[in-house]
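Input record, target 12 of the design panel.
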């Protein structure tokens, strides 16, 4: 099934990673 919360967490993680890099 599709989980919006999971997708939001992934986007947040990628954004944070890009911000740190």
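The sequence produced for target 12 reads:
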């Amino acid at each position: 099934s599709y989980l919006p919360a999971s997708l939001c967490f992934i986007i947040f993680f990628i954004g944070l990673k890009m911000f740190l890099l």
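Residues 14 and 20 are 10 Å apart (CA to CA).
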